[in-house]
Amino acid sequence: MKIAVIGTGYVGLVTGTCFAETGNRVTCVDIDERKIAKLKGGTVTIYEPGLEKLFERNVKEGRLLFTTQLEEGIADAEIIFLALPTPPGEDGSADLSYVLGVAHKLGTIMKKGDYKVIVDKSTVPVGTADKVIAGILKGSNNALVPGEDFDVVSNPEFLREGVAVEDFMKPDRVVIGTDSAKARSVMGELYAPFVRSGNPVIYMDEKSAELTKYAANAFLATKITFMNEIARMCELLGADVDMVRKGVGSDERIGKRFLFPGIGYGGSCFPKDVQALAKSAAEVNYDFRILKSVMEVNEAQKTYIIPKIKDYFNNDLTGKHFAIWGLAFKPNTDDIREAPALYIIKELLAAGATVTAFDPEAMPNVKALLGDSIKFAESQYETLADADALIIATEWNEFRTPDFTKISASLKRRTIFDGRNLFDTDLMNKLGYYYFSIGRKTVQ
Ligand code: NAD
Q1: What range does the domain containing 185 cover?
Q2: Residue in 74, 84, 98 to alter for ligand 1 test, most ligand atoms within 8 A of Cβ
Q3: Closest Cα to atom 38 of ligand 1
Q4: Pocket of ligand 1 (CB under 6 A)
Q5: Which entry of 23, 73, 226, 270 is 20 to 30 Å from 234 by CA?
Q6: Are 164 and 130 found together in one domain?
Q7: Atom 34 of ligand 1: nearest residue by CA position
Q8: Which residues contact 201 (CB under 8 A, 6 or more apart)?
Q9: 67 assigned binding-site residue
């Protein structure tokens, strides 16, 4: 099939590459000229495990192309994916200007009799498919006829950054929202190679598909937040959240995954999607109370370790120096959008402290954002020189079993504030550390 993917970010580039991998010819379109120039030059613009190999193979085979020109990109495409940003607007609702701007432009370009399926892959509020149809119609001065010249399908994306390629190639499920039999058949054919092992393609109406994505993300954000609150209770009552997590997670109705407490959820999706769903609820006069609590608790959780650090240093961080391991909002990505590490750094700097950080992939993005306000190290151990304490903000695998002899030798004092519960508390006790983690006994 011939496919166009509009928006070549985390979702668009993975989507385009993976569709090319199953033999389709994909043209990725982006307005960012530097990004397209890099991609054309053979450089993958995001860090995502496994992506580079697929990217190189498909570029070499001539199945994966790049352009900044929408018209050129969609010229012979049968399916057009919109993988555009939907950031929070000022009032928290999803900003649809990127999606609807492109929809309007598509209307000006698409031709009568050249049927195309337009697919919303961006996370968008209920009713957006109708707005995309209206945008295309307006762009075409009502020359195009929905159902005849085009259909708009909602096909939300559930990939996780860090395992995006695996998630895309073997999705738990594919959700396709459309009432059009023609569009349904095109989408079914496109996704068939991805669900060979029997995972379902779930067909539904557009609105249900749109809401499914928000419901999934809001539920996951709620699950993490619930465990963060249980972790607080553990600290107050002297229980151990690791034990509670295991005890709770072995109930199949609850499940083992997504129960790890920490310094809050971040990333480009959960914060904005929870906010957007709460806003959508308000628009239909529904008070979605759980979501309000989730947002409130998570906001506090991102900087939860700051008062702990201040307490430890007698409320004076002036001139104190901190090593930070991990900047990305989660491991295996270079994405720093809404990363808890950034909130922690901001608070530390405001309190007069200095910071040296290390992250295996996210340092260039943080450098671009924070400039010289913090230092960056070449390795996790290099951060420790002259540091008063180590703070762990992202659970990269390489931080899990570090060389404690090196850590002890470099740190000014054996002090670790661990926002991701990486180390065994008994071991930390044995090694003589002050060790604060989330929902567990503080070792001192
Ligand atoms: P992103 O910011 O990484 O990428 C968006 C891309 O669109 C950018 O490269 C930008 O330059 C480009 N763009 C903007 N306007 C354009 C235009 N007019 N024409 C062509 N390109 C344009 O965003 P993302 O993380 O890939 O997310 C895209 C959508 O997918 C969002 O709605 C998001 O909520 C959703 N989503 C994201 C993830 C994720 O893990 N990142 C997962 C599922 C769903």
Answers
A1: 2-204
A2: 84
A3: 11
A4: 6-12, 29-32, 35, 83-86, 98, 101-102, 122-123, 157, 159, 161, 268-269
A5: 270
A6: yes
A7: 123
A8: 173, 174, 176, 187, 188, 191, 195
A9: no
The three-state (H, E, C) secondary structure of 160-205, written as one string: CCCCHHHHHHCCCCEEEECCCHHHHHHHHHHHHHHHCCCCCEEEEC
Give me the CATH number covering residue 136.
3.40.50.720
Same domain for 324 and 274, yes or no, is no
pTM equals 0.95
Please say whether the beta carbons of 161 and 333 come within 8 A: yes
How many angstroms is it from 100 CA to the middle of ligand 1?
13
Q: What is the dihedral of CA 43, 47, 48, 52, to 10 degrees?
A: 20
Residue 258 assigned to a binding site: yes
Mutate to test the pocket of ligand 1, among 5, 10, 335 (most ligand atoms within 8 A of CB): 10
Closest ligand 1 atom number to CA of residue 13? 26
Do residue 424 and residue 399 come from a single domain? yes
CATH of the domain at 243: 1.10.1040.10
**Ligand 1 centroid – CA 8 distance (Å):** 7
**Within this chain, do residues 309 and 286 fall inside the same structural domain, yes or no?**
no
Please count the structural domains in the chain.
3
Instruction: Enumerate the active-site residues.
Output: 269
Q: Please, what is the end-to-end C-alpha distance for the chain in angstroms?
A: 62
* Ligand-binding site membership of 213 (annotated): yes
Q: Let me know: does 162 contact 168? Beta carbons within 8 Å.
A: no
Find where tokens 């992250």 sit: 359
The answer to whether 123 is annotated as binding is yes
Pair of tokens at residue 225: 């937040």
pLDDT tens for the chain, 444 residues long, are 999 999 999 999 999 999 999 999 999 999 999 999 999 999 999 999 999 999 999 999 999 999 999 999 999 999 999 999 999 998 999 999 999 999 999 999 999 999 999 999 999 999 999 999 999 999 999 999 999 999 999 999 999 999 999 999 999 999 999 999 999 999 999 999 999 999 999 999 999 999 999 999 999 999 999 999 999 999 999 999 999 999 999 999 999 999 999 999 999 999 999 999 999 999 999 999 999 999 999 999 999 999 999 999 999 999 999 999 999 999 999 999 999 999 999 999 999 999 999 999 999 999 999 999 999 999 999 999 999 999 999 999 999 999 999 999 999 999 999 999 999 999 999 999 999 999 999 999
54 and 132, same structural domain?
A: yes
Same domain, 8 and 114: yes
74 and 182 within one domain: yes
Same structural domain for residues 265 and 285?
A: yes
DSSP-assigned beta bridge partners for residue 6: 29, 82
